[in-house]
Amino acid sequence: MQSPEKPGARRIIRAVLMTVFLLLFAVIFYVSVILANPQEDENPVRTDPPLQTAAPPAEMRSAADLPSLLTQFPGPALLATDGYTLIGGGMQDMPVSGGYARTLTLTYRHSSGRELTVRSIWPAKSEEVLDAAGWHLSQIAGQSIAGMPSLRLENGNTLRLQCQGTDALYTVETDLLSGEELAALLQPLQLVEN
Asked: pLDDT tens-digit profile of 128-159?
Protein backbone atom coordinates (compact mmCIF):
# COMPACT_ATOMS: atom_id res chain seq x y z
CA MET A 1 0.00 0.00 0.00
CA GLN A 2 1.31 3.40 -0.94
CA SER A 3 1.46 6.12 1.57
CA PRO A 4 -0.55 9.13 0.66
CA GLU A 5 1.61 12.08 -0.41
CA LYS A 6 1.40 15.06 1.80
CA PRO A 7 0.39 18.25 -0.01
CA GLY A 8 3.14 20.20 1.79
CA ALA A 9 5.93 17.90 0.53
CA ARG A 10 5.14 18.72 -3.10
CA ARG A 11 5.36 22.44 -2.31
CA ILE A 12 8.69 21.99 -0.56
CA ILE A 13 10.17 20.05 -3.49
CA ARG A 14 8.88 22.67 -5.91
CA ALA A 15 10.36 25.50 -3.78
CA VAL A 16 13.75 23.74 -3.54
CA LEU A 17 13.84 23.15 -7.32
CA MET A 18 12.87 26.78 -7.98
CA THR A 19 15.61 28.02 -5.62
CA VAL A 20 18.23 25.82 -7.31
CA PHE A 21 17.06 27.05 -10.73
CA LEU A 22 17.27 30.73 -9.64
CA LEU A 23 20.75 30.23 -8.16
CA LEU A 24 21.93 28.55 -11.36
CA PHE A 25 20.46 31.40 -13.42
CA ALA A 26 22.20 34.01 -11.20
CA VAL A 27 25.56 32.24 -11.53
CA ILE A 28 25.23 32.07 -15.34
CA PHE A 29 24.23 35.75 -15.44
CA TYR A 30 27.19 36.95 -13.34
CA VAL A 31 29.71 34.81 -15.26
CA SER A 32 28.44 36.25 -18.57
CA VAL A 33 28.69 39.82 -17.19
CA ILE A 34 32.27 39.22 -16.07
CA LEU A 35 33.24 37.72 -19.43
CA ALA A 36 31.57 40.57 -21.33
CA ASN A 37 33.61 43.23 -19.50
CA PRO A 38 37.33 42.75 -20.30
CA GLN A 39 39.77 44.00 -17.71
CA GLU A 40 41.27 47.44 -18.28
CA ASP A 41 44.77 47.68 -19.73
CA GLU A 42 47.49 47.86 -17.09
CA ASN A 43 49.30 50.60 -19.04
CA PRO A 44 46.69 52.73 -20.75
CA VAL A 45 47.93 55.19 -23.36
CA ARG A 46 47.69 58.76 -22.14
CA THR A 47 45.85 61.20 -24.35
CA ASP A 48 47.92 64.31 -23.70
CA PRO A 49 47.01 67.22 -25.98
CA PRO A 50 49.65 68.11 -28.59
CA LEU A 51 51.96 71.09 -28.16
CA GLN A 52 50.28 74.35 -29.16
CA THR A 53 53.43 76.09 -30.45
CA ALA A 54 56.34 74.62 -32.37
CA ALA A 55 59.90 75.02 -31.16
CA PRO A 56 62.68 75.56 -33.70
CA PRO A 57 64.39 72.34 -34.80
CA ALA A 58 67.47 71.36 -32.79
CA GLU A 59 70.37 69.33 -34.22
CA MET A 60 72.97 67.48 -32.19
CA ARG A 61 76.53 68.55 -32.89
CA SER A 62 77.97 66.02 -30.43
CA ALA A 63 76.84 63.48 -27.84
CA ALA A 64 77.24 66.24 -25.24
CA ASP A 65 74.06 67.87 -26.69
CA LEU A 66 71.88 64.86 -25.76
CA PRO A 67 71.06 65.95 -22.17
CA SER A 68 69.78 69.29 -23.49
CA LEU A 69 67.53 67.54 -26.02
CA LEU A 70 66.22 65.16 -23.36
CA THR A 71 65.15 68.05 -21.11
CA GLN A 72 63.09 69.44 -24.01
CA PHE A 73 61.34 66.14 -24.71
CA PRO A 74 58.06 65.95 -22.70
CA GLY A 75 58.03 62.18 -22.09
CA PRO A 76 60.36 59.22 -21.64
CA ALA A 77 62.82 58.86 -24.53
CA LEU A 78 64.01 55.58 -26.03
CA LEU A 79 67.83 55.41 -25.86
CA ALA A 80 70.47 52.84 -26.76
CA THR A 81 73.12 52.03 -24.17
CA ASP A 82 75.83 49.35 -24.13
CA GLY A 83 77.49 48.58 -27.45
CA TYR A 84 76.24 51.72 -29.23
CA THR A 85 77.88 54.98 -30.28
CA LEU A 86 75.61 57.98 -30.78
CA ILE A 87 76.46 59.42 -34.23
CA GLY A 88 73.72 62.00 -34.73
CA GLY A 89 70.29 63.21 -33.84
CA GLY A 90 67.93 66.08 -33.43
CA MET A 91 64.53 67.24 -32.32
CA GLN A 92 61.72 68.60 -34.46
CA ASP A 93 58.09 69.55 -33.93
CA MET A 94 55.73 68.15 -36.57
CA PRO A 95 52.17 69.35 -37.26
CA VAL A 96 49.39 67.02 -36.08
CA SER A 97 45.67 67.51 -35.54
CA GLY A 98 45.25 70.19 -32.91
CA GLY A 99 48.92 71.23 -32.58
CA TYR A 100 52.41 69.78 -32.83
CA ALA A 101 54.08 66.49 -31.94
CA ARG A 102 57.67 66.57 -30.71
CA THR A 103 59.99 64.04 -32.37
CA LEU A 104 63.40 63.10 -30.96
CA THR A 105 65.47 61.21 -33.55
CA LEU A 106 68.76 59.56 -32.55
CA THR A 107 71.07 57.57 -34.84
CA TYR A 108 73.45 55.03 -33.35
CA ARG A 109 76.18 52.75 -34.66
CA HIS A 110 76.36 49.35 -33.02
CA SER A 111 79.70 47.66 -32.31
CA SER A 112 78.77 45.22 -35.13
CA GLY A 113 78.78 48.19 -37.57
CA ARG A 114 74.99 48.28 -38.06
CA GLU A 115 73.18 51.62 -37.78
CA LEU A 116 70.00 52.02 -35.78
CA THR A 117 67.66 55.05 -35.91
CA VAL A 118 65.48 55.46 -32.83
CA ARG A 119 62.57 57.92 -32.69
CA SER A 120 60.58 58.98 -29.67
CA ILE A 121 57.37 60.86 -30.52
CA TRP A 122 55.23 62.77 -28.01
CA PRO A 123 52.28 62.68 -27.39
CA ALA A 124 51.57 58.96 -27.68
CA LYS A 125 48.61 59.45 -30.05
CA SER A 126 50.71 60.99 -32.86
CA GLU A 127 50.76 58.18 -35.42
CA GLU A 128 50.07 60.66 -38.21
CA VAL A 129 53.70 61.88 -38.16
CA LEU A 130 54.92 58.43 -39.21
CA ASP A 131 55.56 58.08 -42.91
CA ALA A 132 53.46 55.13 -44.10
CA ALA A 133 54.39 55.26 -47.81
CA GLY A 134 56.02 52.04 -48.92
CA TRP A 135 55.85 50.36 -45.53
CA HIS A 136 53.91 47.12 -45.15
CA LEU A 137 53.10 45.03 -42.11
CA SER A 138 55.35 42.00 -41.92
CA GLN A 139 54.17 38.46 -41.37
CA ILE A 140 56.97 38.09 -38.82
CA ALA A 141 55.95 39.20 -35.34
CA GLY A 142 57.58 42.32 -33.93
CA GLN A 143 59.98 41.91 -31.04
CA SER A 144 59.76 43.52 -27.64
CA ILE A 145 61.41 46.94 -27.28
CA ALA A 146 62.14 48.06 -23.71
CA GLY A 147 59.38 45.71 -22.53
CA MET A 148 56.78 46.99 -25.03
CA PRO A 149 55.32 44.80 -27.79
CA SER A 150 55.94 46.11 -31.30
CA LEU A 151 54.63 45.93 -34.84
CA ARG A 152 57.12 44.97 -37.53
CA LEU A 153 56.97 46.90 -40.81
CA GLU A 154 59.22 46.44 -43.83
CA ASN A 155 60.14 48.69 -46.75
CA GLY A 156 62.58 47.07 -49.17
CA ASN A 157 65.74 46.33 -47.16
CA THR A 158 64.69 48.42 -44.16
CA LEU A 159 62.90 47.27 -41.03
CA ARG A 160 60.80 49.48 -38.72
CA LEU A 161 59.52 48.35 -35.36
CA GLN A 162 56.79 50.54 -33.85
CA CYS A 163 55.58 50.43 -30.28
CA GLN A 164 53.32 52.57 -28.16
CA GLY A 165 54.22 53.47 -24.61
CA THR A 166 51.98 55.13 -22.07
CA ASP A 167 53.39 58.60 -22.83
CA ALA A 168 55.00 58.36 -26.26
CA LEU A 169 55.23 56.48 -29.54
CA TYR A 170 58.55 54.83 -30.48
CA THR A 171 60.09 53.55 -33.69
CA VAL A 172 63.34 51.73 -34.40
CA GLU A 173 64.68 51.47 -37.96
CA THR A 174 67.57 49.33 -39.14
CA ASP A 175 68.56 46.90 -41.89
CA LEU A 176 66.18 44.03 -42.56
CA LEU A 177 67.05 41.52 -39.82
CA SER A 178 65.33 38.86 -37.81
CA GLY A 179 65.93 36.42 -35.02
CA GLU A 180 68.85 36.56 -32.64
CA GLU A 181 70.74 39.32 -34.47
CA LEU A 182 67.78 41.70 -34.19
CA ALA A 183 67.18 40.72 -30.56
CA ALA A 184 70.83 41.53 -29.76
CA LEU A 185 70.44 44.99 -31.34
CA LEU A 186 67.22 45.72 -29.44
CA GLN A 187 68.28 44.41 -26.03
CA PRO A 188 70.24 47.56 -24.98
CA LEU A 189 67.30 49.92 -25.72
CA GLN A 190 65.63 51.45 -22.68
CA LEU A 191 63.23 54.23 -21.76
CA VAL A 192 64.80 57.19 -19.96
CA GLU A 193 62.80 59.90 -18.16
CA ASN A 194 64.04 63.44 -18.61
From this structure: 888 888 888 887 777 889 999 999 999 989 99
Decide if 46 is inside a domain: no
Please indicate, yes or no, whether residues 92 and 170 belong to a single structural domain of this protein: yes
Where residue 16 falls (left for φ over 0; alpha for ψ -120 to 50; beta otherwise) is alpha
- Same domain for 26 and 71, yes or no, is no
Q: Which residues pair with 101 in a beta bridge?
A: 94
Which residue range is the domain that position 171 belongs to? 58-192
> What is the distance between the alpha carbons of residues 134 and 31, in angstroms, rounded to a whole number?
46
What letter would DSSP give residue 54?
Answer: P
The model's pTM? 0.75
Model confidence pLDDT, tens digit, residues 82-132 = 889 999 999 999 999 889 999 999 999 998 899 999 999 999 888 888 888
Tell me how many domains the chain contains: 2
State whether 25 and 66 are in the same domain. Answer: no
Q: Of the candidates 156, 165, 116, 163, which has an alpha carbon nearest to the alpha carbon of residue 136?
A: 156
